[in-house]
Amino acid sequence: MSNLAVNAADRERLLAAYPEVFHRSFMQRWGLAVAAVAVLVYLAFCFSFFNVIPTFVNGNWDRAAIYLQDWYSWRAQPRLRFQNGQVVPQWTSRGQYPDGAAIDWLKPTSNGGYTVIFGSDDRLDVTPSQVDVYIDGKLYPVAIRGDRAILPAGAPARMVQDDNKVSVRFGFAGQAEIRNNQVYVQRRFLGWANFFFDTQSPFWGRSLTSVAGLTLFGERLDPSQSNASLALDNFLNNSSWQHGDILSKLMQTLVMAFVGTLFATLIAFPLAFVAARNITTNRPMNWGMKRFFDFLRSIDMLIWALFFTRAFGPGPLPGIAAIFFTDTGALGKVYSEALENVDDKQREGVKSVGAAPVIVQRYGVVPQVLPIFISQSLYFWESNTRSATAIGAVGAGGIGLKLLESMKTNADWDKVAYMVLLILLVVFVFDNLSNALRSRVMGKKGH
Amino acid sequence: MAHATGPAQFSGLQESSRTILDHYQQQVRTRRIYTVVSIVVFLIVLAASLDFANEANSGKFFERLPYFFDFLKSFVPNSPLEIFRAMFDLPSPYADGSIKFDYTSDRIWITDSFYIPNFFYQLAITINIAIVSTILGATGAFLLCFFASTNLVGAGLTRWVVRRIMEILRAFPEIVVAGLLAAILSIGPIAAIIAVSIHTIGALGKLFFEVVENADMKPDEGLRASGASWLERVRFAILPQVLPNFVSYTLLRTEINVRASTIIGAVGGGGIGEVFSLSIGRDHAAKTYAIIILLLVTVICVDQFSAWLRRRLIGKQSFEFGRGAA
């Protein structure tokens, strides 16, 4: 494709003029390829070292789908028990409906049975002797004989005989397990169940407008307090969502980051003056202070957190202490570097009019470094808002611990999603707040 | 206009100078009032925060403080040598059958006669988690960052989508990813690797695209003039300029990820973090100090090595400020 002609003389001249372009060392030519191969070999080694394939093969992928669906939807799980020729629905303690509530997808029939509606053409008609399964409008009767439920002939793949049980899958809408003495129903709906009010609350099941109407104009539901305060109280003490608890834990996390960073700033500020060589002209003291910063910084925040959790018990105090200790080191280092880079002319100017040493620092140094200091502290504050969650999870309390507890039950993924949303929101707000403050402190040129 | 009576040295001033002085003093007074008000508000917020923290804590600060020193006093190994026995899995003279002094059974046998001390093995796992997730995260960030820079894709939909993806990856709590994966894949290092990688993509992606946006566009123009495609322009005009900074940020990230993988380990991701949280929870002083020493040495070594490598790659430019994006 090249139509550039270079004659021999030109060629020689170019080769001589730009040796670094035409004669490159081995590393310059192949360095990137060598590094890439080395990285690939290393990754392959780690692939076998960490048993990646067996771990993925043995993963509970069927449960993964359920866990992920739980993030944005909820399941109602009644057991329809057969008692004395009647069908009796039984709810677990997590039941999302109050006793005796009229449920539009679970209706009693005239012959003592129940109808479970999964969709316009999908439903179950449950009676103790037979369960009629309708899939896409077609009837597949499951007979119950003695100790087993029997799959009818010609049933679709969504109905499976599993030992004595027949299980039916309706896709996202749910599934059912038909046994000889009960039908175990799982019905899934988009959204979060009882997010605002639990079943104990008088506001349960009301639409948003009706709640608003009640709080503004309605009769007092509880004579001892106004409807608005009752609604707030019911919301915060919602037994399945625990809003009050979660918000207070979130507050703890924010307090950890705020107080920890603030104390670290206040302590690192004077210590940085001791560590800076141009301000304190005492080499052993500079050296000692810098090593002290290194020591604080290098001990992981995790170690400090676990250490103080053992001492003070779980809660925000160990979190504050952990952030305080690590960041005193980190901020001290950054501050002292900023101090060593100050312009000496301003100090000389203040010194030349006969100011005392403290005044020299106050008017010759602080105005130069204060924007940098504040900007760095804001950076750390922002970053600590995130790390306080992780610190909390190891035992320092706050939203991190709450998250970990909710995840361990494997049934509260909706609550996990809620807390993640709250954390994302808070991180977003604090990022913007700290950015705005920083650009005000540093002027328009940014950081 | 009536003037405030200033100190004696201002008495000989002209009318106009006096007005300027008055305005200046007025300004100083206003600023002082603002300063005082903001300090008072600040102190109130701080006091409220501290009180809230103290109330929320399971042990109160002043009640627990004496016990804190008791804890420190009780948390002393029987002899300083115990720490090194715990570190290298050597038999202890205090062995009484409890796991507190049982170091030898933790040995990881490689061959019949050669073993690796458990803590070193766990440390290797943690460091490998950090390195693997840095490599994966940096690769992801590298692939994404060009699509987030205004100078390469314009200010359109692509940039908006990619930047939002990065923001979410960055702010999503690592422990949630790790916890979800631990529930699916069972507890182990893979959950930690994926969790840390995801965070790394977001954090490095932001730093990377800022570097790309600050790149000199003249080489790009040259290539565009000779008819190069978008890919060729990125490869030959942008990449040579940004690669040193990319490598430097990646090294800095490795330091941060060593710490992050320790923390994820303590939450259940395996490695030294888990061993540490177990040993401090069970009051095994010698083991705890052994791990603290190991972690301290590791973090210092990793910091020094990466600082040295960064200096070699891009000279004296300081990237300490990059921590803010963590």
The main sheet of chain B orders its strands as 1-2
Query: Which segments of chain A are poorly predicted (pLDDT under 50) over 5 or more consecutive residues?
Result: none
> Major β-sheet of chain A, in short?
7 strands, antiparallel
Portion in helices of chain A: 55-70%
CATH domain topology of the largest domain in chain A: MetI-like fold
CATH class of the largest domain in chain A: Mainly Alpha
Question: Separation of termini of chain B?
Answer: 57 Å
Biggest interface pair, counts = A-B, 75 and 63 residues
Structure description:
The complex is a heterodimer of chains A (447) and B (326). Chain A is 56% helix and 15% strand. The two termini of chain A are 48 Å apart. With 447 residues, chain A is an alpha+beta fold. Chain A is built from 15 helices and 13 strands. Chain A folds into three domains: 42 residues; 116 residues, no CATH class; 200 residues, MetI-like (MetI-like fold, Orthogonal Bundle). Chain B folds into two domains: 74 residues; 211 residues, MetI-like (MetI-like fold), CATH 1.10.3720.10. In chain B, strands 1-2 form a two-stranded antiparallel sheet. In chain B, strand 1 and strand 2 form a beta hairpin. The radius of gyration of chain B is 29 Å and the shape is flat. The interface between A and B is large, with 75 and 63 residues.
Task: Briefly characterize the structure.
Chain A is built from 15 helices and 13 strands.
